[in-house]
Amino acid sequence: MTNPSVIHLRRAATSLVLDARGPGLPRVVHWGADLGPLPADDLPALVDATIPPVVPSSFDAPTVLSLLPEASAGWSGRPGLAGHRDGTAWSTAFRLDRLDVTDDTTTASADGTRGGGAAGPEPGRVAFGGDPVRVSEADDDRDGPGAARVTVRASDPAAALSLTVEITLDPTGLLTLRHRLRNDGDAAYELRELTPLLPVPAVATELLDLTGRWCRERAPQRHPWPMGAWVREGRHGRTGHDATLLLVAGTPGFGFGHGEVWAVHTAWSGDHVTVAERRPTGESTLGGGELLAPGEIVLVPGEEYATPLLYAVHSAAGLDGLSDVLHRHLRARPEHPGTPRPVTLNVWEAVYFDHDLARLTALADRAAEVGVERFVLDDGWFRGRRHDRAGLGDWYVDDGVWPDGLQPLIDHVRGHGMQFGLWVEPEMLNPDSDLFRAHPDWVLATPGRLPPEWRHQQVLDLAHPKAYEHLLGRLDALLAGHEGIAYLKWDHNRDLTEAGHQGRPGVHAQTVAVYRLLDELRRRHPGVEIESCSSGGARVDLEILRRTDRVWASDCNDALERLAIQRWTGLLLPPELVGTHIGPERSHTTHRVHDLGFRAVTALFGHHGIEWDIGSIDAAQRAELAAWVALHKRLRPLLHSGRVVRVDHPDPAVQAHGVIAHDGAQAVYAVSRLTTSAAQVPGAVRLPGLDPARRYAVRPPAGLPEPAVLQLTEPGWLPKGVTLSGAVLGTVGVQLPALHPEQALLLEVTAVG
């Protein structure tokens, strides 16, 4: 490399500065707030301003953190790369071979080569040659809507390894990072860890991530960021109910609407690791990648391994700022659902395994009456499936239950103008199944024994070519053989425990095979939508969502539990990707009893649906349910396109959130009372995110039951609503009524004038 360079990428409110002057791997000088259109001469000065001093009892030259931390450069924290070739090549010293920087129209290379584009450097373009390289989004957006990209190619001849680092900064300011490692040697190389890492500044002193369990996913946990490593490992063979989703580092006291925060997400549906490390030497890093078992990845000569994408996002406006970037990114994807998300009825909690055509057609009649747009037949339709201990894996319609097949029900549902959906759990099988009896060798297991059963299930080894082809054939035949299956609720109800493939660890190969299966089914049946359900919310990540159209956030439909589950799932995902259903009056999973209004307001903010035996409710309940469904449909364009905000309210018994149109013309907020408060009347609730210069009318929606309250008179503004500026509503707010616990108030906000 003959032309050292410094690179400045800018998109939206984010800057990334890379020092690629060599001879080793580039280092991240800055990832965070936009630095503006820096002059070329300022970039080397910026780099120099960030080089640490040499202190006693340390290396004789400053230690700087590269894109892949290496012991050869003085790094003593968690390694970015760990592996060996029969005990050798265990340490690396990569040297930069080539670096390419690309925006929409121009390419620059750090080795002096040059792609197309303007004849010389312009503002917002790429400066090349011996000058520092800059890629920036000009104030007039002359570069268009595209992303900026950096590709780093490096090698270590002594270790016989090559490394490619791919960095993308997209128009929303979202950063993605991926490493590719190739074995250039003559012998196999066992890879143990390859983890993309990014530095964050010393001002980030607190950590927030999520944990959870079945029916209580997305529970936040927050603590000071101490010295050492905070490591979150997922060893479930799926993303996991306890997955961190986002690992967030931030300035002291950051909240939804304030503070500076940095976050990463590991986009992988198998075993994974996410890590935050703070070193006594002054460095702080966030990162994540695949968690590999011993011997799981052994690269033969010439073979390459690619890490999962690491998504990284910065916000100077708190957690809502993170969500805004992520939601904009996801909505801009070509695979993002482009049609209104149909209101869905799932029949599981109505009929369980008791399938009967007459009962189900009557339920479909009721569904159409209340405004349902998609009717989903859940578990129990296939051969031998009268309970959860048998039949899984035998994907043939049970002619004992469905003597005329599923088509009569499908036709009846479609006759009402509804879509028809079907539950499947393709990756699993029961030992009591024809498939298992015929092919016991098609199970993920170690030689000589089966893993412990989970819900009476084992896991089908999709890395086995014959097992893969069999399953693909059955699912393809199921979809091709029925006219009108528009949706698959794709479940995954157990962890991959002791998951072996041909005597070696099999989670990586299984995960890749599942992706390949989904991709092929989508290719053959492009009109079929797929939901990622995994005992509820145990497979929620951005890689499975490249192949699916929504996730089921939790098997728990208790509205009180769902408030928190949906609030924190929404940190990563926009509402239209999260299934949010109205459950029965008494929750199936907690036995709590809630009014329909509380359940409906909670379920409003997502991909709306119903998980309830509506065939057993009276006419008055059906009429109220239909009114709530109609309200969702009216608000759906806003809910599924607007900016999500969550209120930092001082009373922990009050939770408030909303969605605001990007043009500021419309918003809807929900305020929920979770429990009793120390104060008899909670304080006013601010309505953040509105245009401070515009005036807004605020009122509850008409025609729906009011929430239950404990008060002699209501707040003075509530009977007729109130009109105030966005500045007043965001700073002062509106006084709440004295809501009973587990009640919710919905507010529509409309710009006037």
UniProtKB/TrEMBL annotation:
Domain of life: Bacteria
One Pfam assignment: Melibiase
Ranges where the Glycosyl hydrolase family 36 N-terminal domain occurs: 24-299
Residue span(s) of domain Glycosyl hydrolase family 36 C-terminal: 656-739
Keywords: Glycosidase, Hydrolase
UniProt xrefs under InterPro entries: Aldolase_TIM, Alpga-gal_N_sf, Alpha-glycosidase_related, GH, Glyco_hydro_36, Glyco_hydro_36_C, Glyco_hydro_36_N, Glyco_hydro_b
Region feature (Disordered): 104-148
GO molecular function, one term: alpha-galactosidase activity
Catalytic activity: Hydrolysis of terminal, non-reducing alpha-D-galactose residues in alpha-D-galactosides, including galactose oligosaccharides, galactomannans and galactolipids
Gene3D superfamilies per the UniProt record, alphabetical: Aldolase class I, alpha-galactosidase from lactobacil brevis, Golgi alpha-mannosidase II
EC number: 3.2.1.22
Protein name: alpha-galactosidase
Provenance organism: Micromonospora purpureochromogenes
Taxonomy of the source species: Bacteria, Bacillati, Actinomycetota, Actinomycetes, Micromonosporales
